[in-house]
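Notes to self after the Tuesday call (sharing in case useful).
The group wants a holo model before anyone commits to mutagenesis around the pocket. I volunteered. Ligand is NAP. Logging inputs and output together so the record is complete.
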Amino acid sequence: MQKIAVVTGANRGIGFEICRQLAHLGIKVILTARNEEKGRIAAEKLRDDGLDVVFHSLDVTNEGSIRSLAEWIEETFGRLDILINNAGILLDRGYTTLQVDIDKVRETMETNVYGPLRLCKALVPIMLKNDFGRIVNVSSGAGAFSKMRTGQPGYSISKTAINALTKLLANELAGTNVTVNSMAPGPVLTDMNPNGKRSVEEGADTAVWLATEITETGKFFGDRTEIEW
Ligand SMILES: NC(=O)c1ccc[n+]([C@@H]2O[C@H](COP(=O)([O-])OP(=O)(O)OC[C@H]3O[C@@H](n4cnc5c(N)ncnc54)[C@H](OP(=O)(O)O)[C@@H]3O)[C@@H](O)[C@H]2O)c1
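Result:
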């Protein structure tokens, strides 16, 4: 049976490339974006290449938007195999921890942590109905305790927190066939990181590998290799 995947924040950058790679593997991809027009154009671009991609609007900070996506998936497909929590924001580059604006930290947490948490709450029950699911949380080296440095404190805290979400959920879902892993794409050239040296193809690869080839759970990966939290 054809697998079905949801990718968040997929109108551009790494998320768009994850959609492309998943669809190339024969997976039906639900490309989601908060901006309807940008999302539709992105999905159309992939469909023009013959890929099986549909658009659905999704703002990961909006409970109603998440609920309507979950209802639409249930009604349309009755199943969901893959969730890639990719949407993310970086608002405090260059700030020290003492300088940072708490409102920016709060906003970052809403998107980068509470968004994925809300999506898991809404979509894991659908996965459990078929006892199959692959959840990939797009984290960052900036969230690893082993690499923690200064700068972008809200972003770093959010990526450490999404790693905690990975671990908690993986433990709670142990014994089911739903896996949860974090991955770090490395410094990828996108709107978020104009100085990134890696391509989106390289940045997306490990997320797609985790979603399609791996049965391990509760781990943190970079370049298809387990890395330190
Ligand atoms: N690039 C890097 O070097 C790098 C390194 C480590 C980790 N990452 C992580 O990789 C992921 C993708 O980053 P990227 O580099 O591809 O960044 P990007 O080009 O800035 O793309 C971010 C995406 O997230 C979407 N988004 C933001 N807030 C959203 C919301 N509330 N609801 C739905 N979508 C939302 C954006 O939509 P709009 O177009 O509407 O803003 C955009 O599609 C992020 O989680 C990021 O933290 C990136």
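Two things stood out.
The first helix runs from residue 13 to 24.
Residues 8-9, 11-15, 33-35, 38, 58-61, 86-89, 111, 138, 140, 184-185, 187-188, 190-193, 196 surround NAP (CB under 6 Å).
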